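From the methods appendix. Each design record in this collection lists the tokenized structure first, followed by the designed amino acid sequence. Records were kept in a plain field format so they could be parsed without special tools. The example shown here is representative of the layout used throughout.

RECORD:
FOLD TOKENS (181 positions):
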């Protein structure tokens, strides 16, 4: 496993060691001890989530203002452009974003620590997206920053308008959203 830093402190790209031959492949997708040793992150995951979405579906930018979740995310079918936005007011990278392709082919994972908004857009015909979270889903604490906030300036790889949920269409501008200290 390789752990690579990203442009935003705390967000980590994880490349697993994949063993393959003519029969297929094998890799260890998560090992708590190795994750802690390699990342320096002591995370206890309490919930696993799995979604399937069609091409052009954009989910996000979601976060929980209380019971903030760290997320370890990956794609098991298809491909997405995955985004993390720093919402920590005290951070030197507050309001900045980073994005990366996660796919079944590249088998990469992204660690998104608490204090970040997270979202993705499906770039393949469909994608299955899995994520482990460090706290439980709490809808009363969930918030959404609008996906196309010009103050953030995410460069989404879109052909036309994305497909959004009602909740995601109602997202707030960063300037109006609840933030972390």
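DESIGN:
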């Amino acid at each position: 496993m390789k752990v690579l830093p990203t442009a935003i402190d705390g967000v980590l790209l994880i490349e697993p060691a994949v063993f393959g031959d003519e029969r297929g492949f094998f890799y260890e997708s998560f090992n708590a001890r190795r994750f802690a040793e390699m990342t320096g992150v002591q995370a206890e995951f309490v919930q696993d989530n799995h979604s399937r979405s069609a091409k052009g579906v954009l989910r996000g930018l979601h976060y929980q203002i209380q019971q903030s979740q760290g997320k370890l995310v990956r794609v098991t079918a298809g491909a997405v452009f995955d985004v993390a936005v720093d919402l920590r007011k005290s951070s030197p990278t507050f309001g900045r974003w980073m994005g990366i392709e996660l796919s079944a082919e590249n088998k990469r994972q992204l660690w998104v620590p608490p204090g970040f908004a997270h979202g993705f857009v499906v770039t393949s015909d469909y994608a299955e997206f899995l994520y482990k979270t460090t706290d439980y889903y709490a809808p009363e604490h969930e918030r959404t920053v609008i996906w196309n906030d010009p103050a953030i300036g995410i460069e989404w790889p879109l052909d036309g308008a994305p497909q959004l949920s009602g909740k995601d269409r109602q997202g707030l501008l960063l300037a109006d959203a609840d933030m972390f200290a």
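APPENDIX NOTE: The longest strand covers residues 47-54.
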